[in-house]
Amino acid sequence: MLRRLLQPFWILLAIIFLIEAWLWDHLEPIVARAVAWIPLRTFKQWLAERVDSLSPAMTLIVFVVPLIPLFPLKLVGLWLLTHEYWLAAISTIVFAKFLGVGVTAFIFDVTRPKLLEMRWFKTLYDFVMAMRARATAMVEPVKRRLVEMLRGDGDGWSARMLRLIARFRKSVHQAR
């Protein structure tokens, strides 16, 4: 009974986790393009050479330190939110989120081999990857059902309603 009550909560957490993973996957190529456009490619190469000479523990510091300046930006977004500057607050928070994920993806790409040398970090990394696969498996049936509903496939009331709307739209377009 409790498991059934908690299932929507777990699905919501899985969706949030997958949104984070999606942002990570899609922002990393954007950051890579920015690196190619701005002279950050040489910085990335320079950083990779420096990381190779560091111990795994020091590499962890290189991974974490770039995220620290983003915290005040999120606080600014929170301050804007409390003072009811809604658009500015949402823009700042979203910008900080995208910037944080982009910078983290960039730095993680450089530091991953060294970080994975630490046993606890490798265990944590494997756990996160397993949770990502589990979240995908949990959300996939819901996603498939939503896609079927939106396409009008299937026999449920929503599919019939969408087919009816599609027929109505087609008749309106033909009447013009």
* Helix fraction by DSSP (H/I, runs of at least 4): over 70%
Kindly state the number of beta strands: 0
Structure annotation, total helices? 7
Helices and strands, in order, run as HHHHHHH
What's the N-to-C terminus distance?
55 Å
Contiguous uncertain segments of 5+ residues: none
Beta content comes to under 5%
Rg calc? 22 Å
Strand-pairing-aware structural class? mainly alpha
Mean pLDDT: 79
Q: Which word captures the global form?
A: extended
| Biggest sheet record | none
Task: Describe the protein in words.
- The protein is mainly α and 176 residues long.
- 87% of the residues lie in helices and 0% in strands.
- The protein contains seven helices and no strands.
- It has helices at residues 2-37, 40-52, 56-64, 70-82, 86-115, 119-151, 157-175.
- Helix 1 packs across helix 6 (119-151), helix 4 (70-82) packs antiparallel against helix 5 (86-115) and helix 6 crosses helix 7.
- It starts with a helix and ends with a helix.
- 9% of the residues are buried.
- The mean pLDDT is 79.
